[in-house]
Design goal:
This protein is of the alpha/beta class. About 45% of the residues lie in helices and about 15% in strands. A four-stranded antiparallel sheet has the order 5-8-6-7, covered by helices on one side. α4 crosses α5. The chain is elongated.
Length: about 260
């Protein structure tokens, strides 16, 4: 999730490069942590102590290749690609991992994070709870639990008018984000009221985008009990909640939360 500062010169390229490098390093450390969580079980149960541990790498992409080659120096790496989000898709991946002797899976892409959690749980590894993961992935909910978040609010383009939404905005310009998608989909930089009205009209008419947001929200809520479900994520809601976060007037960096 990112809150970006913009201005006449655009996003600071050097800061963006540094952030990208830190993200890759941070993701690598997270992957190593996931693997470490099952090292002890591997050492106890493996009869071939000298063999490399077999791990699964989910959703490999071109920019990940160097890190993938580094992993292969320490582990036997199986590349796993999961096409869907339904239980049968997850079970197929779990069965594939078991057939290849994969002990744990991980990866670098946020879009695959739910797959990491579900497949690792299916392999018998300890993982975070469904409600904890929902808070991690929902851009509105994650800010609700931050100790000192920047300005944010929810808007509901399906049930609120343009004027009602405009009345909520305390800072302009700002970023308007759907709550679930990644890779820049359904995210808009809003300059003024007319721009906001145009974006809201575009969103309401974009059936494919709305269905994608709804479907992923449904998948992220799967496994969360009614008692644990946050109020703005109840099953009766379409869950197309959006967050609005400020864009700073001085363009010096990209701030990620």
């Amino acid at each position: 999730v990112s809150t970006q500062s913009t201005g006449s010169s655009g996003i600071n390229a050097e800061y963006g490069k540094q952030w990208y490098q830190r993200r890759v390093r941070g993701s690598f450390l997270l992957f190593e942590t996931l693997i470490s969580s099952v090292i002890f079980r591997f050492l106890v149960t493996s009869s071939k102590m000298a063999d490399k541990m077999t791990v699964g790498f989910l959703g490999p992409q071109a920019y990940m290749r160097q890190a993938l080659e580094d992993l292969k120096k320490t582990y036997t790496v199986e590349e796993i690609n999961i096409k869907g989000w339904e239980p049968e898709d997850i079970q197929k991946a779990i069965d594939l991992c078991k057939s290849k002797g994969v002990e744990v899976v991980g990866g670098f892409a946020q879009k695959d994070a739910l797959h990491h959690i579900l497949v690792n749980a299916g392999l018998g590894n300890k993982s975070i709870s469904p409600v904890a993961f929902l808070y991690c992935m929902n851009k509105y909910l994650m800010r609700k639990v931050e100790s000192s978040p920047r300005y944010f609010d929810y808007v509901d383009p399906d049930n609120e008018t343009d004027e009602q939404i405009i009345g909520k905005i305390k800072e302009w310009p700002f970023m308007l984000k759907n709550t679930s998608l990644s890779l820049g989909r359904g995210i808009f930089r809003i300059k003024d009221q007319e721009n906001l009205k145009a974006v809201l009209k575009e969103y309401r008419e974009d059936k494919a985008l709305r269905e994608e947001i709804d479907y992923l929200n449904k998948c992220l809520k799967r496994g969360v009990s009614e008692k644990e479900m946050p109020a703005r994520c109840r099953p009766s809601s379409r869950s197309t909640w959006w967050t609005s976060t400020p864009v700073l007037s001085t363009a010096t960096r990209v701030h990620h939360t």
